[in-house]
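Troubleshooting log. The previous run stalled partway through. Resubmitting the same two chains, unchanged.
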Amino acid sequence: MARVLFTPNLERHLSCPEATVSGASVREALDAVFETHQQLRGYVLDDQSRLRQHMVIFVDGKMIVDRVHLSDAITVDSEIYVMQALSGG
Amino acid sequence: MSSQIHIATRKGLFRLDRSSNGWSIGRYDFEGEHVSMMLHDPRDGTTYAAMNHGHFGVKLHRSRDTGVNWEECATPVYPEGAEIGAGPFSTDGKPKPASLSEIWALEAGGTDQPQRLWCGTIPGGLFRSDDSGTSWQLVESLWDRPERLQWFGGGKDDPGIHSICVHPENSQHVTVSISCGGVWVTEDDGESWTCKADGIRADYVPPDQAHDPNIQDVHRLVQSPSHPDTYWAQHHNGVFRTTDGAHSWQELSGIQPSPFGFAVAVHPKQPDTAWFVPAIKDECRVPVDGKFVIARTTDGGETSEILTQGLPGEHSYDIVYRHALDIDETGNCLAVGSTTGNFWISEDGGDSWQTISTNLPPVYCVRFVKI
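Second attempt completed without errors. Output:
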């Protein structure tokens, strides 16, 4: 199961505990988290389901490439960090 | 006279309360958050606050107990595949995807539509809610107009609806204005729309396009509550007014010391009386000669007075954004907040002003609580 961790700055607005989920891509992993944390979706993705402009996601230490479809592959051992970008602050 | 004022700022939502000792800050909510717009709905007392988080997007919160408790409600969502026009400053001439970037206008519907809200957004979508913000629907009749693809940003990168006027006697009649997209009117509750900006002039386009109603950069539009056929528009080029329900507009050259600005307020009972916050047009955008003044006309814009008592007379660099000037229901009390965090109130129609704060965050929106 992949681990999904969120920037602690999100806790200012809503609860987003670390999650362990299954899936083959970042999109699948996040969708699994959002199933139980529906409100969190709008804080990470925009209204077109793309990664928000000033958010970044790292998978196993590497920034994802596909910010639109979130198709970057993950493995069962992946660590997915959802972070703020330094832009937008 | 109203006894409460909300102030939406770059760093939170303030409420001023008036007591026997005068005005003071009574509440502070959303500490540190960018509050782009707020609304106190006089029909049921609900207060709405729109956020624009730098990283986490646009959010809308509401309180049914005057700010003691807040709940997050829905935000407008652009439909999949929605696009905005390339605009005149595009480098590739291609439309781009539409996505909510700011709630820029929020207004209550008429008393016959008790849960109706209208929401103007960047990049140019008008949304409607009939359940007090629990859900939103894009007003497709306006969004689908082919002219909408010609709208473009003025100040902001993308076009936005910043003013929504619900006719005080007919809630089916709604007028919106867009930077930059002119003035659009529906008389059938949003079923159909007509662009009504004839007579408004733009000098930021070639002369043969200057009177195109669909490219006008109205900075702020207000409607006279007592004479709803009268609207005042503070436009990028100057001040315009209509007295025939937006069928024709006249440019008014009497606003001193400058016709440029963002905000306008109209007297609730006297349609010929209005207030403005003039500044140098337009790259500079500071008060003329460093003197922060309010302009008042009482003759429909033919002439104006420059109001200075209590306002800084030198080295002022305050600009007042389009939603940061408001007037109460008596017409005596005005409130204005600036980009520099100064806040002034007049209780005599602008003749004199008292400084309430010099330390607020940049002010985006000022609204009296109207009962």
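Takeaways: The domain at 97-368 of chain B is CATH 2.130.10.10 (Methylamine Dehydrogenase; Chain H). The interface with chain A takes residues 53-57, 59, 72, 75-78, 80, 97, 99-100 of chain B (CB under 8 Å).
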